[in-house]
Write a structure and sequence with these properties.
The structure holds two protein chains of two kinds. By secondary structure, chain A is α/β, with parallel strands linked by helices. Chain A folds into two domains: 232 residues, P-loop containing nucleotide triphosphate hydrolases (Rossmann fold, 3-Layer(aba) Sandwich), CATH 3.40.50.300; 243 residues, Rossmann fold (3-Layer(aba) Sandwich), CATH 3.40.50. Helices cover 33% and strands 26% of the residues of chain A. Chain A is built from 17 helices and 24 strands. In chain A, the strands form six sheets. In chain A, strands 6-9-10-3-11-12 form a six-stranded mixed sheet, with helices on both faces. Chain B is mainly alpha-helical. Chain B has a single domain, classed as ABC transporter involved in vitamin B12 uptake, BtuC. Chain B is built from 15 helices and four strands. In chain B, the strands form two sheets. In chain B, strands 1-4 form a two-stranded antiparallel ribbon. A two-stranded antiparallel sheet of chain B has the order 2-3. In chain B, a hairpin with a 3-residue loop joins strand 2 and strand 3. Chain B starts with a helix and ends with a helix. The chains are: A alpha/beta, B mainly alpha. Chains A and B meet through strand 2, helix 10, helix 11 and strand 20 of A and helix 1, helix 2, helix 10 and helix 11 of B.
Chain lengths: 504, 328
């Protein structure tokens, strides 16, 4: 860090924001210096997103001050923030997919001459912006043809071409591969050299150590402390959660019982080929592999969400009709899908309604729904899973990510499945909620159920699974017991040539 | 140990009350508008608040309300049914033609009309659920097809109606108009379907998130068939009521009513994005439209101006609804 501390670019003092029934920010203070990466750390629902939205001009704070270059400012709109040099890269990117890279970089303010767009000036400005972020693509490429990482760079280029001095990055690494994360962190280092101040949000504690300068920890809408980014991991987690987390992966293993799920030779053209696996009572089986290896596809086929061409799925020895979610539910299979917002929840409906989605049919007699039963089940699930919600009638959208995920799991538990298929069950949720989900997995298996887990976080697979099956290009290429499963062993299998797996 | 309970705790009493008052008003926003309209009309016209006139308003609202109930089902699933006006006309023609020219017993003819409603709904639904056509396109096609059939069957001429259909235009005890009774009964039926039955609850889930509905074991296509078939039946009954009032089946009857029914649903607070909407809202929405028309007639405002006023009211109703949603 610089020897003589320059005045802060941006400071927040006692910021307060209230929503009906919820205090989202309750006196948050922090500051950002030029050339600094200031990390905001906190569980989902701690107030990070609300804070960012206040800085981006999306929300108006109810109390406290925002100071830019030492002067108090009111940010009434995104445009106000932009004018003061504050740019935000939201998790959901604000790009127009069909428009070109150049058009997106200069969105809303293309250079004009006599009201007509000056194409040459536009190309020059866009090219300069792309060069600053090191993005090498044709200016005319439609943005939708780029991967998520490069779309993000377009978004950053757009921010920089607005002369942003403050860059807010909301979980920019969540959807990136390791290489892409490396490249993004490199770019952030360059920007730091040039004096850009960055507010960085990430759930990955390793990244924080790599790139961060200072860390402000938020909990329950308050800033609970500011520490250097070199602070050790356990201490950061303790500040964030408000208690110590003993074990990150608290798996309690037990002797597996009867075979619950038996999949043989499952094939679907272009997606996966002769996949065979078993899940026993009390067992957690992991399905590891690179993105695109076919893990999600296999899970969806088992759950009846997609059809398969050949092979069979049996639960407790009984064949399950393929391509029917209904048949799978009746057989005792439940799928918690990878994208809870798009596939798992009706965001505008209440917690209770969401919890009753799978059991709606079985709670129906002669076409009439037994609401008393659905309410009882919902109350029971809220209690059993510790879903933190003001009431069963609260709209699911307002819950934090971890609690939303519990609702998705809860709606399946209500149907009392023998085997639960979990696809990325902890994506985008915080450390505390993750451990709660793991404890839930323990409870399920202690109950004699089986769990089939797909996760892109290898440590999670290694930590929670009793057996790990590795997939590559739509085939199973290996099986590892939890004693022999290490990162290296799994990765070695995941990238191995498909041909050599024939013997398996 | 819950770590974020304090987030949900202790909003001040004032915010709580303000919140409750807002949600009570918001939920019945259309109802408040209806009361206001009624008050204004009462002040401007001595005739408005008479039993006879109010019954008139009810009769005028009936056809649009019944169409609107069916429309509410479809809109909740995030679809739309543009064919309801044409289907209503077809229903009137089918019952008149089969009972008159073909000699089918009148009650059977009524059943045939209802079957025509179901059939048109099912065809629309097949195009939407299996053909993956947008509901707008599929039902726009059906709008044209059903109207065409009504014209073909009738030869473009009005078709006389049997007494059983004319009954729909009469009164009970000499004062209570039957269209009004049919509207209220169907409103209760529709409300029951929406709130108490599997089909109704599934409509909300499908409209809220179709993919989540499918992955939760709801047979989305099957429920869409049911939804559009229901809309078709309601449209067919609306057609009977209309034919009863006119004592003849007109092939051009109810044209443009699909837009009125959509307006009633939207004024009633449903979102065209799906997942929300209530029968009571639609009922009030239909009454709002009828009160405006009736009031402007009483005040001798030309029907040309009425169209402008109705357009403004629809825009205002949806605008206040959108503003209210944005605030929360």
């Amino acid at each position: 860090m610089v020897a003589e501390t320059p005045g802060p670019l941006l400071a927040v003092d006692g910021l307060r924001k209230e929503f009906p029934g919820v205090v989202a920010l309750d006196g948050v203070s922090f500051d950002l210096r030029p050339g600094e990466v200031h990390v905001l750390l906190g569980e989902n629902g701690a107030g990070k997103s609300t804070l960012i939205k206040c800085l981006a001009g999306v929300y108006q704070p109810d109390g406290g001050r925002v100071l830019v270059d030492g002067a108090p400012r009111r940010l009434h709109s995104a445009r106000d923030a932009e004018r003061l040099g504050i740019a935000t890269i939201h998790q959901e990117l604000n790009l127009v997919p069909r428009l070109s890279v150049a058009e997106n970089v200069l969105l809303g303010r293309p250079p004009r001459r006599f009201g007509v767009i000056d194409r040459r000036a536009a190309a020059r400005q866009a090219a300069a912006a792309l060069e600053r972020v090191g993005l090498d693509v044709a200016l005319s490429t439609p943005v939708r043809e780029l991967g998520i990482a490069r779309q993000q760079l377009v978004e950053i280029a757009k921010a920089l071409s607005l002369d942003a001095r403050v860059l807010i990055l909301d979980e920019p690494t969540a959807a990136l591969t390791d290489d892409e994360v490396e490249r993004l962190l490199g770019l952030m280092r360059e920007l730091r050299e040039r004096g850009v101040g960055m507010i960085f949000i990430s759930h990955h504690l390793e990244e924080i150590r790599q790139i961060g300068d200072r860390v402000t920890v938020l909990r329950d809408g308050r800033s609970v402390g500011m520490v250097p980014a070199t602070t050790d991991r356990d201490e950061l987690v303790r500040m964030m959660v408000g208690r110590t987390i003993d074990a990150q992966y608290p798996r309690r293993r037990q002797t597996p019982g009867e075979v619950l799920l038996d999949v043989t030779d499952l094939s679907a053209a272009g997606r996966f080929d002769s996949v065979g696996l078993q899940v026993r009572a009390g067992e957690v089986v992991g399905l590891a592999g690179l993105v695109g290896a076919g893990r999600t596809e296999v899970l969806r086929a088992i759950a009846g969400a997609d059809r398969y061409d050949a092979g069979s799925v049996r639960v407790r020895g009984v064949r399950v009709r393929g391509g029917s979610v209904d048949a799978a539910i009746d057989a005792g299979i439940g799928l918690v899908p990878e994208d809870r917002k798009a596939q798992g929840l009706v965001l505008g409906a209440s917690v209770q309604e969401n919890l009753g989605m799978v059991t709606l049919r079985s709670a129906t007699r002669w076409g009439l729904v037994d609401f008393g039963r659905l309410r009882a089940v919902a109350t029971e699930m809220i209690r059993r899973l510790g879903i933190r919600t003001p009431s069963g009638r609260t709209v699911v959208r307002t819950l934090s990510g971890g609690n939303q995920q519990k609702v998705v799991i809860g709606k399946w538990l209500a149907a009392n499945p023998a085997v639960l298929l979990l696809d990325e069950p902890t994506r985008g949720i915080d450390v505390g909620a993750k451990v709660e989900i793991y404890e839930l997995v323990n409870a399920l298996t202690a109950d004699g159920r089986g769990v089939l887990l797909v996760s892109s976080e290898l440590p999670e697979v290694l930590g929670m699974c009793d057996r790990v099956l590795v997939m590559a290009r739509g085939r199973l290429v290996g099986e590892l017991d939890h004693t022999e499963a290490t990162q290296d062993a799994v990765m070695a299998l995941a990238v191995k040539e498909v041909e050599s797996s024939r013997a398996f | 140990m819950p770590s974020d309970t304090s987030r949900v705790a202790a909003p001040s009493a004032v915010t709580l009350w303000r919140g409750r008052a807002q949600s009570a008003l918001g939920r019945n926003g259309a109802f408040v508008a209806l009361l206001l309209l009624g008050a204004v009309m009462t002040a401007l016209s001595r005739v408005f608040l008479t039993t006879q006139n109010l019954l008139n308003v009810g009769v005028q609202a009936a056809v649009v309300a019944i169409l609107g109930f069916g429309q509410t089902f479809v809109i909740i699933t995030s679809g739309i049914d543009l064919s309801v006006g044409s289907v209503a006309a077809l229903s009137g023609i089918v019952v008149g033609y089969t009972s008159g020219s073909m000699g089918v017993p009148p009650l059977l003819a009524i059943l045939l009309a209802l079957a025509a409603g179901v059939a048109t709904g099912l065809v629309s639904a097949v195009m939407v659920a299996f053909g993956r056509l947008p509901a707008f396109i599929a039902t726009m096609a059906m709008l044209s097809i059903a109207r065409g059939f009504a014209l073909v069957i009738s030869g473009g001429r009005p078709v006389p109606q049997p007494a059983q259909v004319a009954w729909f235009g009469k009164t009970i005890g000499g004062w209570l108009p039957i269209p009004l009774v049919v509207m209220v009964v169907l409103g209760l039926v529709a409300s029951f379907i929406l709130n108490r039955t599997y089909a109704g609850r599934a409509m909300y889930v499908i409209g809220g998130n179709e993919e989540a509905a499918r992955l939760s074991g709801i047979d989305v296509r099957r429920q869409q068939l049911i939804t559009y078939a229901l809309s078709g039946v309601f449209a067919a009954i609306a057609g009977l009521v209309l034919a009863g009032r006119l004592v003849s089946g007109q092939p051009q009857a109810a044209s443009g009513y699909e837009l009125d029914s959509i307006a009633a649903v939207v004024i009633g607070g449903a979102s065209l994005a799906g997942g929300s909407g209530r029968i009571f809202g639609t009922f009030v929405g239909a009454l709002v439209l009828a009160v405006i028309r009736n009031g402007l007639n009483l005040l001798n405002v030309s029907s040309f101006w009425q169209q402008i006023v109705i357009g403004v009211v629809i825009a205002l109703a949806v605008l206040t609804d959108t503003l209210r949603r944005r605030r929360t």
